[in-house]
């Protein structure tokens, strides 16, 4: 009925929650939606962080080059979630570039 929270990315959850809250306001306990929201958000974030990315995808997400990320994998600083010759990295293991450093324009 509600398009459960499993396998949802965090950005999909507000629409699911709005639908559920509307239903619960009419037919149930609106406070129950809060408990579902917390559990679904936690699960969605776990699934999101557990996604494995190619080095090219990881480069787009992190802001670092694929070559640099590959060298971090080779050095063992980032665990290889793929296989030898075809490394992958988990989203949760990506380094985050400091985008507020002097000279770096913020994304608008």
SS elements, strand count: 2
Element-level helix/strand string: HHEHHE
What percent of residues adopt helix (DSSP H or I)?
40-55%
Distance between the termini: 37 Å
Number of helical elements: 4
- The helix/strand class is mainly alpha
| Number of self-contained structural domains | 2
Instruction: Report the portion of residues in β strands.
Output: 5-15%
**Uncertain parts:** none
Rounded to an integer in angstroms, the radius of gyration calculated over CA atoms is 19 Å
Question: Major β-sheet, in short?
Answer: 2 strands, antiparallel
The averaged pLDDT comes out at 81
Walk across the major sheet and give the strand order. 1-2
**Rough shape?**
elongated
Would you mind describing this structure in some detail?
It is a single chain. By secondary structure, this protein is mainly alpha-helical. It folds into 2 domains: 10-50, no CATH class; 52-93. The chain has 4 helices and 2 strands. The protein has a two-stranded antiparallel ribbon with strand order 1-2. The protein is elongated.
Keywords:
single chain, 108 residues, mainly alpha, 2 domains, two-stranded antiparallel ribbon, 4 helices, elongated
Give a quick summary of the entry.
By secondary structure, the chain is mainly alpha-helical.
Describe the SSE topology.
Blueprint: H1 13-27, H2 30-50, E1 52-54, H3 55-62, H4 66-74, E2 88-90
Antiparallel strand pairs: 1-2
């Amino acid at each position: 009925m509600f398009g459960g929270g499993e396998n949802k990315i965090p950005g999909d959850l507000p629409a699911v929650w709005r639908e559920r809250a509307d239903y619960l306001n009419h037919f149930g306990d609106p406070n129950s939606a809060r408990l579902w929201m917390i559990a679904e958000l936690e699960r969605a974030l776990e699934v999101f962080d557990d996604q494995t990315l190619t080095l090219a995808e990881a480069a787009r997400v992190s802001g670092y080059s694929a070559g640099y990320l590959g060298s971090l994998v080779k050095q063992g600083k980032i665990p290889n979630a793929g296989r030898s010759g075809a490394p992958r990295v988990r989203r949760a293991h990506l380094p985050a570039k400091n985008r507020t450093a002097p000279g770096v324009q913020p994304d608008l």
